């Protein structure tokens, strides 16, 4: 489509430039007239003083001298002097010729002081008064402008050349197209390509590959396919190297079946596909989760005698792992090994990350051992996967040991891997240790990022060491002009949660001193603080100021306000804000309904619960674990444990896994009702469903044992005691 727009754009450009050239021509004509007045005829007969030769004595010698002078001045970038020498040639009959003009252009373009406007003036003068530009004029201008990277001017000269009946060379147009593509100027690249096709030139395959790749990266896949279609219609059949970017671009944009149609069309026309053509289709169908189509492509590859390579296999493995189909991905790896295609480091890293994130650490360690046996050196992605997996599983000790071993070995480790480890330490309330380690590593050349500093800062805040956190802002070597808004928000959010008004004032003062403005996160934290300390009026004033002056309150801001008001017992106020804020568009979301549902159940306002639930369904929000947790709380509060258990069964049947909070609510209700045997049965259900008890669960169990559970249900209590001991042992091991 852009091909049809381009000529109109070019005509408009020519009109604008011609108007400007005419204006320049008028100024030039006046200046030339003035110069003519300053050079009467007798000035050319100065005698033999050596300054100017006398044209009356030897016209050829005079002409040659002026030529040399013009060329020397032009090479030095002295345009006015060079142009003056050119004008002085006019006293010789038939001079200056078009070749003299071309020489002026040629030598001036070789200087280091080129002003394109001067060349434009000369071109307009030649068009108006003569001599008319010839092929050499245009070629000299085009080559020189390309050398100076004046690409828009070069494109205009190429178009003017065609208008005047001359044909630019293939080499010059190819150079122009390549330079435009390397600059990312897609619009002028289209014009250059259109000009080439108009002249019957076909770009080289590397240039076409770059052109199609650039268009697809810019999201213009349809335009790339249009150009490709034009080439096909003109009888040009590029190789797979050229059109593979289009296939991949279509597949990445969710148009895999369109890509498959083009694939078969080209195959029908006799175009040979390569392994990356098939891999593009594998990528697209894997991305869309259409694995049956993926396996059909694999079969098609074998039928066509094209063997999948490691990239093809790794592509489908990556998407299978992301979709949770780990066993299927492992089967694909077995298949590739059988077909003598060996996994590379990228393939192994994908599996390591997936196994670690799914808690399958033994398998991950075994895979790591196999990698080392095969001679693969772990890279930062490998270490990030292992350390992140260990930390996620709570095995901080093992993660610490691995990290120190990596440092001792001097292995290649990047700042992102280090940040994962520092985050794990801070999560275990070991922020000082993390900070000390950063300083020690910096002495050995480690360069932390702002993420590193903010991670440690957040750790100090979670440990309630706000004074130290604020002091750390001065000890860190920040990238940029100082601490960023994220750093200040980290400290201020912690201060708001703790209700520390003094710290809030100190942070706000420091932000003002550093010239850092509050953003939506800062304002949301302040709203939460004002509600928490009971300053509801000030909270509403701040909200009104945000609505009037910005930043505009987000759904998160309103949800924080609703939650804070409900916790302060101001449910009526919260509900009024909920109704008023509905007009903002993005509000409310599922979280908003969950907050109000929980508060309504706590207030025993069941008519409103019914209304909110109906609204929730009407908005397209389905109940989640938090919603079910609120209903479980309400049922258990009324002592209706059997209904709570029935609701839990309903959750499981609906594919929603009950959270540990729901189980703890039921356990606590059973304990208060004296149903100790039922407590044991619930724990069995939790074990079957893979839901491990937490500290709240163990607290409930201890109370059950202390309140006569051992005497009444000795066998059940032995099982509970064993469960508690195992839980304590796991907690110790993780530390």
What labels would you give this structure?
single chain; 735 residues; mainly alpha; Serine Threonine Protein Phosphatase 5, Tetratricopeptide repeat; 39 helices; 0% strand; elongated; disordered N terminus; disordered C terminus
CATH homologous group name of the domain at 344-413: Tetratricopeptide repeat domain
Radius of gyration (Å):
39 Å
Structural class: mainly alpha
* The CATH class of the domain at 344-413: Mainly Alpha
Uncertain spans, ≥5 residues at pLDDT below 50? 1-50, 727-735
Q: Report the biggest beta sheet as strand number plus sense, adding barrel if it closes.
A: none
How confident is the prediction overall: mean pLDDT? 83
Instruction: Tell me how many strands there are.
Output: 0
The shape is elongated
Q: List the quaternary state of the chains.
A: single chain
What proportion of the residues is helical, as a percent range?
over 70%
Beta-strand fraction estimate: under 5%
Outline the secondary-structure elements.
Layout: H1 2-37, H2 59-75, H3 79-88, H4 98-109, H5 116-129, H6 135-147, H7 151-163, H8 170-183, H9 186-198, H10 205-217, H11 221-233, H12 240-252, H13 256-268, H14 275-287, H15 291-303, H16 310-322, H17 326-338, H18 345-357, H19 361-373, H20 380-392, H21 396-409, H22 415-427, H23 431-443, H24 450-462, H25 466-475, H26 485-498, H27 501-514, H28 520-532, H29 536-549, H30 555-567, H31 571-581, H32 590-602, H33 606-618, H34 625-637, H35 641-653, H36 660-672, H37 676-689, H38 695-712, H39 714-734
Helix pairs in contact: 1-5, 1-9, 2-3, 2-4, 3-4, 4-6, 6-7, 7-8, 8-9, 8-10, 10-11, 10-12, 11-12, 12-13, 12-14, 13-14, 14-15, 14-16, 16-17, 16-18, 18-19, 18-20, 20-21, 20-22, 21-22, 22-23, 22-24, 23-24, 24-25, 24-26, 25-26, 26-27, 26-28, 28-29, 28-30, 30-31, 30-32, 31-32, 32-33, 32-34, ...
């Amino acid at each position: 489509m852009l091909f049809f727009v381009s000529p109109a754009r070019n005509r408009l450009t020519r009109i604008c430039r011609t108007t400007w050239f005419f204006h320049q021509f008028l100024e030039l004509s006046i200046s030339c007239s003035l110069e003519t007045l300053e050079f009467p005829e007798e000035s050319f007969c100065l005698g033999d003083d050596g300054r100017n030769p006398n044209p009356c004595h030897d016209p050829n010698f005079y002409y040659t001298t002026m030529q040399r002078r013009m060329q020397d001045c032009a090479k030095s970038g002295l345009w006015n002097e060079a142009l003056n020498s050119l004008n002085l040639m006019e006293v010789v009959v038939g001079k200056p010729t078009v070749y003299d003009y071309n020489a002026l252009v040629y030598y001036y373009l070789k200087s280091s002081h080129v002003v394109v406007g001067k060349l434009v003036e000369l071109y307009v003068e030649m068009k108006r008064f003569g001599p008319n530009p010839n092929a050499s004029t245009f070629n000299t201008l085009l080559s020189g402008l390309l050398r100076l990277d004046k690409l828009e001017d070069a494109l205009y000269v190429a178009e003017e050349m065609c208008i005047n009946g001359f044909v630019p060379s293939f080499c010059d147009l190819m150079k122009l197209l390549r330079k435009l593509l390397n600059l990312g100027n897609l619009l002028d690249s289209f014009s250059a390509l259109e000009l080439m096709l108009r002249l019957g030139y076909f770009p080289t395959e590397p240039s076409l590959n770059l052109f199609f790749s650039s268009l697809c990266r810019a999201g213009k896949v349809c335009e790339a396919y249009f150009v490709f279609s034009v080439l096909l219609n003109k009888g040009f059949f590029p190789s797979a190297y050229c059109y593979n970017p289009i296939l991949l671009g279509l597949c990445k944009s969710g148009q895999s079946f369109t890509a498959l149609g083009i694939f078969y069309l080209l195959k029908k026309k006799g175009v040979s596909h390569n392994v990356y053509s098939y891999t593009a289709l594998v990528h697209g169908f894997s991305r869309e989760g259409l694995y049956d189509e993926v396996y059909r492509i694999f079969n098609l590859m074998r039928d066509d005698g094209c063997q999948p390579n490691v990239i093809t296999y790794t592509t489908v493995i990556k998407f299978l792992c992301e979709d949770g189909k780990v066993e299927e991905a492992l089967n694909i790896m077995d298949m590739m090994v059988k077909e003598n295609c060996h996994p590379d480091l990228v393939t192994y890293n994908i599996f390591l990350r997936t196994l670690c994130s799914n808690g399958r650490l033994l398998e991950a360690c075994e895979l790591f051992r196999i990698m080392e046996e095969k001679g693969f050196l772990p890279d930062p992605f490998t270490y990030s996967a292992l350390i992140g997996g260990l930390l996620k599983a709570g095995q901080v000790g093992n993660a610490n040991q691995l990290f120190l071993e990596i440092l001792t070995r001097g292995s290649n480790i990047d700042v992102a891997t280090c940040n994962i480890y520092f985050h794990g330490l801070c999560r275990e309330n070991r922020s000082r240790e993390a900070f000390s380690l950063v300083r020690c590593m910096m002495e050995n050349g480690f360069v932390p990022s702002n993420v590193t500093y903010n991670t440690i800062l957040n750790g100090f805040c979670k440990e309630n060491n706000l004074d130290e956190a604020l002091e750390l802002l001065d000890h860190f070597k920040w990238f940029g002009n100082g601490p960023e808004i994220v750093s200040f928000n980290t400290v201020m959010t912690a201060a708001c949660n703790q209700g520390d008004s003094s710290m809030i004032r100190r942070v706000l003062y420091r932000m003002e001193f550093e010239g850092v403005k509050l953003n939506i996160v800062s304002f949301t934290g302040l709203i939460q603080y004002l509600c928490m300390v009971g300053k509801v009026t000030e909270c509403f004033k701040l909200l009104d100021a945000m609505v009037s002056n910005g930043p505009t309150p987000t759904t998160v801001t309103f949800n924080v306000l609703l939650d804070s008001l409900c916790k302060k017992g101001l449910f009526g106020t919260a509900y009024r804000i909920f109704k008023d804020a509905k007009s903002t568009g993005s509000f409310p979301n599922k979280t908003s309904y969950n907050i109000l549902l929980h508060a309504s159940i706590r207030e025993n306002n069941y008519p409103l619960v019914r209304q909110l639930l109906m609204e929730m369904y009407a908005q397209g929000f389905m109940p989640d674990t938090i919603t079910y947790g609120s209903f479980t709380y309400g049922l258990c509060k009324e002592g209706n444990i059997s209904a709570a258990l029935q609701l839990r069964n309903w959750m499981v049947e609906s594919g929603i896994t009950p959270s540990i909070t729901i189980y703890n609510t039921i356990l606590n209700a059973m304990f208060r009702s004296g149903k100790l045997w039922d407590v044991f049965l619930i724990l069995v259900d939790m074990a079957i469903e893979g839901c491990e008890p937490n500290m709240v669960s163990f607290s409930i169990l201890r109370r059950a044992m202390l309140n006569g559970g051992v005497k009444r249900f000795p066998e059940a209590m032995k099982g509970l005691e064993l469960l508690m001991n195992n839980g304590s042992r796991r907690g110790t091991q993780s530390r």
